[in-house]
Amino acid sequence: MPRAAEQSTTAREAATLIGPADALATPRYTGLARRIRELVLAGQLPAGTRLPAERDLAAALAVSRVTVASAYRVLREEGWARTRHGSGTVTEVPGGSDDRASWLPQHTTGLVDLAHASPSAVPQLEPAYRRAVELLPSATDGHGYSPGGLPELRAAIADRYTARGLPTEPDQVVVTCGVGDAAAAVMDALLETGDRVLVEHPSYPGALRLVESAGARLVPVPVDETRPDDLVEAAHLAARQSSPRLAYLIPDFTNPTGARLTATGRRRLAATLWQQGVLTVVDESCAELYLDEGPLPPYAAGLPDAATVTLGGLAKAVWGGLRIGWMRTDAALAARLSTVYGRRQLSVGLVDQLVATLLVRDLDAVLEHRRAQLRTQRDALLVALADQLPDWQVHPPAGGLSLWCRLPPGLSSAALAAAAAPHGLLLAEGRAFGTGHAFDDHLRLPFTRPAPALRAAVELLAQLAGNLRGGTSHPAVPARTVV
User: Fold this and answer.
1) Helices and strands (H and E) in the chain: how many
2) Residue 314, SS3 per DSSP
3) Half-sphere exposure of 334 (CA within 13 A, CB side)
4) CA 278, CA 187: separation in Å to the nearest integer?
5) CB 106: neighbour CB atoms within 10 A?
6) Which of 451, 323, 434 is CA-nearest to residue 379?
7) With CB atoms counted within 10 Å of each terminal CB, which end of the chain scores lower, N or C?
8) Which residues make beta-bridge pairs with 49?
9) What one-character DSSP code corresponds to residue 79?
């Protein structure tokens, strides 16, 4: 049963969400009904929200009251709203479900998860675990805790940085339970309420939420995947105007755009932020997932070690289930971060660290397999999009894990995500990667699944997009068509 109304929206708020009346599909009342339906699906007008009175919304949109009344009638007839005595018109979801989580099937056969840009495990993972178990008896004499990380893992990570052109000693490395955990430790240690943090826009949602949860303020700087080095001047101006405490950057194949700073661009950006006293947190999750071009120097190369905290991990190269990440900075700051992290978690799991040590020392072979896999899947996804959705704009990335698709006018990524979930396809809507209501006209599509699943997903998206743009409430495609 639908729940009682828990919130209401003013006519001005609703009109802002709906947008200009001239942009609505015709006839105007069906266009308005469709737009409100999209907002319900997106969670911007959640089920149980009392809509404005017809007269008030008509005035706010500069349309006739008949238009609004007719739109509300369509919503009621199609199950997207109901009239409650004393409450007016209240939104709901057809079928009586008003929980956004219910759109995400928990146990669906053939489920394709494109909400997370995480590939399946590489073949080297299972042999590494078997070898780690063989090594375990020699490591179980003590208490099993390794604050800061196993010495042999820290040494392996340091050697990897040194080989990439960033000389590193083991005492500059702190091992964590994944890259996100490393980022959280940095925010915990270095941010205070009210501090400003410069971020690319769009950017990794986890980082944006960490900044906000720390009580800090985001300073978004636009990223253009077709002109990635434009970030340098934009960040320079933002840093001068806002005096951020930190910058959180993904210089290589940023999530979600796939943009990559050139060697010149990263040198210029690193220099300008350091000169302005901004400590840069560098997320290198995808730094070595280059597909069409060779490696570039690490962002931190050539800077004082104290200028950056570089984050890395094995989730993208190896497997998301191997929760191993790390922080790399100068030894003094590394010791401070290790102390802070120790309050969060005394030690990362011993077996996983043994596995990670083996894999880091064999990372070139691991990456060779991963790059070949991702290259094939990216190309298959690009071909499918060009064939099935030619009006979606995509700039092919030279590496990373995902495409950043600009949707045609009138198509909402939030509506697409909500419509796709009941059919076994999970998507992350564009707004998750930005601040406010930005990027609902974009959709991130990871190429982390096998090519047949990606082609089937695009086929389903083409059907759903056509239905949504045509105003169909319930997509006329069979459930769970994605396999």
Assistant:
1) 15, 16
2) coil
3) 23
4) 14
5) 7
6) 451
7) N
8) 7
9) T
H/E stretch holding 406 reads strand 402-406
- Are the CB atoms for 338 and 147 separated by under 8 Å? yes
- Joined together, the tokens standing for residue 440 give 């609902």
Query: Which residues, 6+ apart, have CB-to-CB distance to 221 below 8 Å?
Result: 198, 199, 200, 201, 231, 234, 235, 238
Tokens of 444: 């991130």
Place of tokens 């890395």: 312
* Contact partners, residue 59, CB within 8 Å, separation at least 6: 11
Do strands 49-50 and 442-446 pair parallel, antiparallel, or not at all (unpaired)? unpaired
Whether residue 48 contacts residue 91, with contact meaning beta carbons closer than 8 Å, is answered with yes
The whole-angstrom separation of Cα 480 and Cα 462 is: 15
**Lowest-pLDDT choice from 6-15, 189-198, 283-292:** 6-15
- Strand ranges, E, within 69-203: 81-84, 88-91, 112-114, 173-176, 196-201
Our CA dihedral for 134, 135, 136, 137, rounded to 10 degrees, sits at 90
Backbone angles phi, psi at 113, to 5 degrees: -95, 100
Q: What are phi and psi of 241, to 5 degrees?
A: -80, -30
Average pLDDT over residues 420-426: 87
Q: Rounded distance, CA 32 to CA 75, Å? A: 10
Sign of the CA dihedral 246, 231, 218, 338? Answer: negative
Q: Which residues on adjacent β-strands are paired with residue 90?
A: 50, 82
Asked if 420 and 426 count as a contact pair (C-beta separation under 8 A), the reply is yes
Q: How far apart are CA 479 and CA 419, in angstroms?
A: 11
Q: Of 104-113, 274-283, 328-337, 419-428, give the lowest mean pLDDT range.
A: 104-113
* Model pTM score: 0.79
Q: Is pLDDT above 50 for 480?
A: no
3-state secondary structure of 286: coil
pLDDT at site 45 = 80
396 CB-near residues (< 8 Å, 6+ apart): 378, 382, 403
**What is the Cα Rg of the chain in Å?**
25
First-to-last CA distance in the chain? 32
Q: Are 103 and 422 in contact (CB under 8 A)?
A: yes
**β-bridge partners, 83:** 89
Give one word for 410, left, alpha or beta, with left for phi > 0 and alpha for psi -120 to 50.
Answer: left
Task: Evaluate whether 383 touches 427 at the Cβ level (below 8 Å).
Answer: no
